[in-house]
Amino acid sequence: MNGVARAFLLVAILAGLCGMVWGIQMSASHDHTLSPAHGHLNLLGWVSCSIFAFYYHLVPDAAENPLARVHFGLVVAAVILLAPGVALAIQGKTELLAKLGSVIMLVSMLLFGWIVLKAPRRVAARA
């Protein structure tokens, strides 16, 4: 796995590890107040980034599209903003980061949909 596919998988692994550590911390402290933020980190960071990684790996023509790197940047920005943004919103501090991260994630998913629609229908040959 190379290029944008590998980059997405590395972000997925990092988000998954952070999500696991956060879950263990919540369990140990018996305070699950921030579990919605933890859930967003796991779903958007670990799950979505893994799906993007495997799609780009299986459809190399899509991975070579310059928009794939834009997609990667948007997703990383969204995850960085959204998970802590949801935590801050739950704590009543600010909703700005959660709102901004949500809009960026929506734009990234629209872009991904465009990339999928425009990609050739052939997939990588199996070795």
Automatic annotation (TrEMBL):
It comes from the Bacteria. Keywords: Membrane, Transmembrane, Transmembrane helix. InterPro entries: Cyt_c_oxase-like_su1_sf. The chain crosses the membrane at residues 39-58, 70-90, 96-117. This is Cbb3-type cytochrome c oxidase subunit I. It comes from Ruegeria alba.
